[in-house]
Design goal:
about 350 residues, alpha+beta, Endonuclease III, domain 1, Nucleoside Triphosphate Pyrophosphohydrolase, seven-stranded mixed β-sheet, 12 helices, about 35% helix, about 10% strand, DNA-binding, glycosidase
DNA sequence: AACCCGTGGAA
DNA sequence: TTTCCAAGGGT
């Protein structure tokens, strides 16, 4: 049972600061207007999962311009949404985004549910996003815990337990300081504080509205919180990709399987990136190899992709599923970053592009 | 529970 | 240059 009024000073100090210093962001209703659109709140929250505000802003505008409502998004083609998401990363989010939009538009009559529990049941909405949408879009009291809140709370209470084991302790502390009213503003205020003042390194304690309430501020090194366990080293992998270009100015592209790494995204044909030392190319041809492999770093491994180039006669088509894509429209293919860079490298060897 | 899943900016 | 890590979710 939550005890009323235990830490109301923290919430009131923070909200007073937020009323003056809140960041103006495209998905935020202007100050004073209580008109948060659940569609825009949900879309922004999904885009912001593990992704910086600066990276999200252009994608948010592109999506809301093209699909202004959840019904419009639900009616979009899968390939269009995946291509529009290209470059933002974590592509399972885009697949779940569409599944969620279609569930809301179809089963729920176009209205997002207002309760945390029913939001949590939708695809791509976990504990954090359910709480954030319930609080920000619907004014419900919900305990919103993201990486910013974890950091701020760990510092406020100088929590010594290392992450991720500290999660229950941090959530309980966040619950204690979450107010009954303005929970959405409180959540956004905590995240603004974490993004602009209570930053991971070199926090600006001198201008922090919660300095007097902060146990970490009274220690020698506030930035030492939250404590984290050492992380494992990233393994390195190698792979091969094939650029097959036809004399009429087209290149052979494939779509990756719906699950797993870069799932559902358009791509160059490539080997798996495990151990196979010398995989066979898709077809017999006069292959040349680019001098510099494309280097790319994923979340849990780094990759060096060697690109092989062949120029094919117009009557040859590689085996398996794929499509001939016009070289002058390569930007519209919706490549994830690895293949966008691989295509850029291969285009230097292109014979058929103006 | 531990692992998988992208990208790019900051220091 | 390398390292860190961001409005996490799914399995």
């Amino acid at each position: 049972m939550r005890v009323e009024g235990t830490h109301t000073k923290i919430a009131s100090d923070l909200l007073a600061h937020y009323d003056v210093h809140a960041r103006r962001l495209p998905w935020r209703a202007p100050p004073g207007s209580n008109a948060a659109d659940p569609y825009r709140v949900w879309l922004s929250e999904v885009m912001l999962q593990q992704t910086t505000v600066a990276a999200v802003i252009p994608y948010f505008h592109a999506f809301t311009d093209r699909w202004p409502t959840v019904d419009a998004l639900a009616g979009a083609q899968d390939a269009d949404v995946m291509a529009a998401w290209a470059g933002l990363g974590y592509y399972a989010r885009a697949r779940n985004l569409l599944a969620c939009a279609r569930a809301v538009a179809g089963d729920l009559g176009g209205a997002f549910p207002a309760s945390e529990e029913r939001l949590r049941a939708l695809p791509g909405i976990g504990d954090y996003t359910a709480a954030a949408v319930a609080a920000i879009a619907f004014g419900q009291r919900a305990v919103v815990v993201d990486a910013n809140v974890e950091r701020v709370v760990a510092r406020l209470f100088a929590i010594e337990t290392p992450l991720p084991a500290a999660r229950p302790e941090i959530r309980a502390a966040a619950d204690r300081i979450t107010p009954d009213s303005r929970a959405g503003d409180f959540a956004q205020a905590m995240m603004d504080l974490g993004a602009t003042i209570c930053t991971p390194r070199n926090p600006a304690c001198g201008i922090c509205p919660l300095r007097d309430d902060c146990a970490a501020f009274r220690t020698a090194d506030p930035a030492a919180f939250p404590v984290r366990l050492a992380k494992k080293a990233k393994p390195h992998r190698t792979g091969h990709g094939w650029w097959m270009e036809r004399a009429d100015g087209h290149v052979w592209l494939v779509r990756r399987p719906g699950k797993g790494l870069l799932g559902g995204m358009r791509a160059l044909p490539s080997s798996d990136w495990s151990a196979a030392p010398d995989p066979a190319p898709p077809l017999e041809a006069r292959w040349t190899t680019l001098a510099d492999p494309v280097a790319h770093v994923f979340t849990h491994f780094s990759l060096s992709l060697t690109i092989h180039v062949a120029h094919l006669p117009p009557d040859v088509t590689p085996p398996g599923e794929g499509e001939w894509w016009p070289l002058e429209r390569l930007e519209e293919a919706g490549f994830p970053t690895l293949f966008r860079r691989a295509a850029q490298a291969a285009m230097k060897e292109s014979r058929y592009h103006a």
